[in-house]
Each structure stands twice: as C-alpha cells, then as structure tokens.
Amino acid sequence: ADTAAEREMTDGFHLVIDALKLNGIETIYGVPGIPITDLGRLAQAEGMRVISFRHEQHAGNAAAIAGFLTKKPGICLTVSAPGFLNGLTALANATTNCFPMILISGSSEREIVDLQQGDYEEMDQLAIAKPLCKAAFRVLHAADIGIAVARAIRAAVSGRPGGVYLDLPAKLFSQVMDAEAGAKSLVKVIDAAPAQIPAPEAVERALGLLKNAKRPLIILGKGAAYAQADEAIRNLVEKSGIPYLPMSMAKGLLPDTHPQSAGAARSLALKKADVVMLVGARLNWLLSHGKGKTWGEPGTQKFIQIDIEPREMDSNIEIAAPLVGDIGSCVSALLKGMGENPSPPPAEWTGALRTKKEENLGKMASKLRKNSTPMDFHGALGALRTIIKERPDAILVNEGANTLDLARGVIDMYQPRKRLDVGTWGIMGIGMGFAVAAAIETGKPVLAVEGDSAFGFSGMEVETICRYNLPICIVVFNNNGIYRGTDTDPTGRDPGTTVFVKDSRYDKMMEAFGGVGVQATTPDELSRAVNEAMDSGRPTLINAVIDPQAGTESGNIGSLNPQSMVKKK
Ligand code: ADP
Ligand code: MG
C-alpha cells in the first residue's frame, strides 16, 4: 500500500526553499541560529547563495539594497525575537526607502507565545512587524508556504515597493507532506509588479504645464533609478532640453557631467524654477517639503509629480499635475505626447544655471587639488573622484556626516544605480550591508567611502567581506570622531562625547581576517591604495587620516541639530 515511508515526502524547510527558487530568488542574506539554521544550510545545498552575516541589521540592509538593485525582493533570514528585532530595523528602513525586501524570521510556538507562558525567545513578532512594513504574514501550515511566499513577493514589489515580514514558527519547518502535493502547492507569481499606465488626461495636464514653463526643472529621485527606465528617462531629459537635478541615489542616471545637469547650481535651480517635475522623488525633508527658503515664493512654483503611489500627491504642498503610474510608463507617455521637436526651455534660464554651475565647479576645483597632510575632506575626495571617473562601473557606497555630504557633491557618477547611500532616513550603519550586497548582486568592484563613526556601526562585517572574498575596498575617513575629533569633557573626567580613540588604525581590522590593510596620509597614497584594491579585487580597508579639525557639526544638516542656547550664554 501507499505508506508514508514509500511515498516521497517534503517538509517546511524544503517548501520555503522551493517557493523562493521557483520565483527566481537566488540569494539569502542572514544570520543562522534557532530555528532557521538548517534552512540556510539546506538552501545552500540546493544551490542558493547564502550569505551569513555577523549581525542581522547588516544582513537586512544587504537584502534591502539587493531589492533596489534588482527589482526583486531581497531576502533576509533571521532567528526569533532579538534576531528578528535586529532585522526589523533594516525592514523599516527598506519600507521608508521604497526598497522591496522580505524579512523571514523563525519564531516560537504560537500556543506558548499567545498564552505568554515564556517560550524560548518568546515574542509576538507578527504584531510588532506590522506597523513597520508594507505587509506581514504568518504561515502555520506547510501547505500554505507557497501562497504565503507568493503574497510576500507581490506585496514587496507591486505598487510602491517596500518591506514585507514573513513569520515562520519553528514547528512549520519540520511539518511533513506528500512531495507531489507540496510541489503543487507552490505558486509562481505572474507579473509581480504590473505596469501602471497613467491616464491620458493626466499626461496632457503635465505636458501643458511643461510647455508653458519659462524656468522648468526636472528632479530625478531614487524611484527613477529603481524603475530601470534609464533610456526613457535620458530621452525625456535630452529631448525636452530641461535642466535636471539628481537626488543622491539618482546620480548617474545621466552622467553628472551632462550639460543639462544643474547639480552644481542646486540652490538657484530650486529657488527660481517655475515648473518642477518630480520623477520618483518625494517632497520630504530632503527637498525641504517643497517650501521655505529653499524654494521660491509660495504659489509661484507649480509641481508635476510622477509617482506610483497616488497618496504621495499633495503630501506636503499642492501638486498641480499628478501623474500616477510607474515611471517607465509615465515617462514614455510624456515622450510620446511631446512630439518630435518640443521647443527648448528659454536660453535665459538654462544660461543662468550654466553660469552658476561653472562658477561653483571652479570654486570646488581648487579645493580638490589640495595635497595637505593630514588630509582634509576635499583633498581625499578629490582622489576618489578621479578613481570613479576612471572606473565608472564601480559601485560607490557612502555614509557618514561630512564624508557623506561632501562626497555626494564631489564624486561624479556616470552610470545608473552606482551610488548607494544613507537614503531617506539619512541613517548610519548601511555601509557594510550595502557593500556586500552590491558586490554579490552585481559582481562589480565596490568602493565604500565611510566616515569613521558610520563605519563603526557595521564594521564587524569586514569579517564577512573577507570570508566571501568580495571585491570591496573600504576607505575610512578617520578624523578621530563624529563630525570632528576635537571634543573634550568639560569636567576633564572622560573623553568628549563625540570623539574616538585618537589615531586608530582601522586598517588593522581588515588584516585580522586576512584582507589588505593600508594606512594613507596623503591623497597620492590614498589613490594608489584604492587603485591597487580595485585591480586586485581583494578585500581592502584603507585608513585615510583626516585632520581632526576638519568637518562641521552634523555636516549639511546642522539646522536639524538643536543646540542649547543656555550653554552658549
Ligand atoms: P529620493 O530620496 O531620491 O528623493 P524618494 O525615496 O523620496 O527618492 O522617492 C522615491 C519615490 O519613487 C517614492 O515616492 C516611490 O513611491 C516612487 N517609486 C518607486 N518606484 C517607482 C516606480 N517604479 N514607478 C513610479 N514611482 C516609483
Ligand atoms: Mg569622523
């Protein structure tokens, strides 16, 4: 007879792996432990790439940026309670940044958790995840794994992308079922992120505004980079002749050296534009909410906004021409409606921006040539700027305060999705997770430019980088502290609150795990070491010695940093 022993069987472990693979997901970023240790092991045996990190937050950040780079949800796998919470930070950050990712966490037994009887790592993870992500699901039966994974994928990538939580209780993994029935229960998601075509009237409205604009401006955001509609976007900019401004992760959609880039005349462009078209960029704090002194007189500027999320419209100010749809479809519709030879924007406007831009670029050029020891930010960044120019397909990961603000302006990008940084929250700690995923997903060399403080949040992952032998070159801008290395304790008891051990040698950390460590004190030494790392592909950490006096409090966002007036009296 047909006994269980004779029939071919499968279980929860295998069904999760089969469901992911069926949907083209090939990589898992995670940290092993109870109850998902065997899941990672089996996934590796089944040919998936399993990248084990030292801390879940970095695995989660890796999954998130893998989602941004590939338009497929990145997978992060964690243990229960504490591991889940560590991964949750990355899931919330992914959701905030509109990156598709799925956090899969093992969890404890429902019966005990729900009665709060104190299980091993007891926590109602589903309830906790829900407000911090786009969707959250729990699977109790092995037969539901297929549909749950399908729902998670669709939720992550359709509409506005974001983070999804999938809760898998320990018991699920060893639930056994007939292999044939198991295979039938799997779901391959068809058209996971369907095109969303804008309404013709909405396209007309937007074109009407553009046509009558005297000082039009296009702002490209990371949604535009994510959309992978690179050619259409480039055509739109070039055919219309409209100056454009890239948000930081949209840099390189068109090369920063493009004649229409208004990047170096940002302040003037935002203040004076009369019609602004946002393409996958939100009017959040990064654009001063579309109002205030960054912008022109209220009511004098009109906005067109392309976004897949209808509720984004009017979130901060009135949007005169909302264009709801996916960026590829919207931009194509605009191109079509524009006709073959749209008249270019007035030369007075484009000329004014060009003049300002040349003036600002000239001012910067002299700072970049500075060859001082210890280096200041500009001297060191000047060297890195040349390296990216010569190696435009390398991926630049960037975090820090001054290290971030200044690198964003100094280092030109030439190709789409090559600049990965702190994103919408402006958080520290994404560095090593982003670098690992960038190397794994693209196979290209990665240059991670890190403030010494920012690096500290994920620094232990240098071991991960060495273990997988990834082509990642980390440059730590070491100015002995947060913002600057000069703070002191007024009472004389302890080190100042924002400083680190003086003259630390972060390069030694890399050597501890078999990577290459270099100490660089001049721009020339820095250049030489980075080029060597990029040529060899060996994991490298360069400790770039920066003047502890260099740097400003909170970098460019000092205005958000409250300071006591009483103290200053
Ligand atoms: P930035 O920080 O670069 O300004 P944001 O993260 O603020 O960018 O904005 C990205 C926007 O892009 C989000 O509002 C998101 O809904 C939108 N978006 C993401 N992917 C797409 C897409 N494929 N089509 C249209 N809009 C998209
Ligand atoms: Mg510092």
TrEMBL record:
<dbReference type="Pfam" id="PF02776">
    <property type="entry name" value="TPP_enzyme_N"/>
</dbReference>
<feature type="region of interest" description="Disordered">
    <location>
        <begin position="547"/>
        <end position="569"/>
    </location>
</feature>
<keyword id="KW-0456">Lyase</keyword>
<comment type="similarity">
    <text>Belongs to the TPP enzyme family.</text>
</comment>
<dbReference type="InterPro" id="IPR017660">
    <property type="entry name" value="Oxalyl-CoA_decarboxylase"/>
</dbReference>
<feature type="compositionally biased region" description="Polar residues">
    <location>
        <begin position="551"/>
        <end position="569"/>
    </location>
</feature>
<feature type="domain" description="Thiamine pyrophosphate enzyme TPP-binding">
    <location>
        <begin position="402"/>
        <end position="543"/>
    </location>
</feature>
<protein>
    <submittedName>
        <fullName>Oxalyl-CoA decarboxylase</fullName>
    </submittedName>
</protein>
<dbReference type="InterPro" id="IPR029061">
    <property type="entry name" value="THDP-binding"/>
</dbReference>
<keyword id="KW-0460">Magnesium</keyword>
<dbReference type="InterPro" id="IPR012001">
    <property type="entry name" value="Thiamin_PyroP_enz_TPP-bd_dom"/>
</dbReference>
<dbReference type="Pfam" id="PF00205">
    <property type="entry name" value="TPP_enzyme_M"/>
</dbReference>
<feature type="domain" description="Thiamine pyrophosphate enzyme central">
    <location>
        <begin position="203"/>
        <end position="334"/>
    </location>
</feature>
<dbReference type="InterPro" id="IPR045025">
    <property type="entry name" value="HACL1-like"/>
</dbReference>
<dbReference type="Pfam" id="PF02775">
    <property type="entry name" value="TPP_enzyme_C"/>
</dbReference>
<keyword id="KW-0479">Metal-binding</keyword>
<dbReference type="InterPro" id="IPR011766">
    <property type="entry name" value="TPP_enzyme_TPP-bd"/>
</dbReference>
<dbReference type="InterPro" id="IPR012000">
    <property type="entry name" value="Thiamin_PyroP_enz_cen_dom"/>
</dbReference>
<feature type="domain" description="Thiamine pyrophosphate enzyme N-terminal TPP-binding">
    <location>
        <begin position="12"/>
        <end position="128"/>
    </location>
</feature>
<dbReference type="InterPro" id="IPR029035">
    <property type="entry name" value="DHS-like_NAD/FAD-binding_dom"/>
</dbReference>
<keyword id="KW-0786">Thiamine pyrophosphate</keyword>
